[in-house]
Design brief:
Elements lengths: L6 H4 L4 H11 L9 H7 L2 H11 L7 E8 L5 E9 L2 E3 L2 H12 L2
Antiparallel strand pairs: 1-2, 2-3
Amino acid sequence: MKQHITEEQLDELTKKQSEKIHEWYGFPKGASGHNRELALQLSIGKLIEFLDECINDSYFSIGTQPVWGGKDGDTVIGHTWCVEEYENNELCDALWEAVKESLL
């Protein structure tokens, strides 16, 4: 299981989104060059903490959904993580999509 986001995922952010997440984590305003350090620190737990503190709604949901397959398509062959409307095989990536949306 993937434990934290990547530098490439941080590069997906706009400048405004990047500033917000850097400030939330405690980097000084306008600080740059911390993407590697920040990516390693934004673990599943930190992403959940961010959503808990910053999401506009009073709650958010995390769950799983079956992935169907097999010969007849009626066999559960795995699961995908769901955070609000974001689905991904990796919980970390589903959380990251929700975090990116909340930074808008």
